[in-house]
């Protein structure tokens, strides 16, 4: 069976670390980053120059880029296609769904994986990541985002019929988490 696995998590949860490890360990897999596909489309349209400008765009423009990226990704082939993305994006207009109906309909995920960590761990990771331009948030903000992520995950699972997994990515445990997820997906792909 061919799998299309959407891996999500709030910034700093370790989603990219986990999905990188997964794509390296699962045979016949390919990894695509949804934000990169959106960035490529945004750059082509001359709307943005770097990834962190995406969340500053109007919701209308973000939606257009989401649709273009989803169509591009939907055409990709692999035994296991990992899609690294976000369930929601904090914008000036409020929280915008990263997987609205038209996007999940185009992607047709077979599995949804939410990578989580504690709000305290996420705060530390965000503050030490010098590669990104993060907005300042509080622990209470992060706890709210974690709860919101679970709600968005459940909605995406309901819309697609794809099973959802929640992976707790504690500090220093990413190899263990990725190994467990790889086992689950290898069984599903068999």
Please tell me about this protein's structure.
With 190 residues, the protein is of the alpha/beta class. The chain has a single domain, classed as P-loop containing nucleotide triphosphate hydrolases (Rossmann fold, 3-Layer(aba) Sandwich), CATH 3.40.50. Helices cover 49% and strands 18% of the residues. It is built from 7 helices and 7 strands. It has helices at 15-25, 34-44, 59-74, 101-107, 119-128, 139-160, 174-189, and strands at residues 3-8, 29-33, 80-84, 88-91, 94-97, 111-116, 164-168. The strands form 2 sheets. It has a 5-stranded parallel sheet, with helices on both faces. A two-stranded antiparallel sheet has the order 4-5. A hairpin with a 2-residue loop joins strand 4 and strand 5. The longest helix is centred in the last third of the chain and has 22 residues, at 139-160. It is globular.
What is shown here, in short?
The protein is 49% helix and 18% strand. It is an alpha/beta fold and 190 residues long. The N and C termini lie close together (6 Å).
Say what oligomer this is.
single chain
Strand order of the largest sheet: 2-3-1-6-7
Shape: globular
Based on helices, strands and strand pairing, what is the structural class? Answer: alpha/beta
So, CATH architecture?
Answer: 3-Layer(aba) Sandwich
Biggest sheet descriptor: 5 strands, parallel
Task: Give the % helix.
Answer: 40-55%
| Series of secondary-structure elements, N-terminal to C-terminal | EHEHHEEEHEHHEH
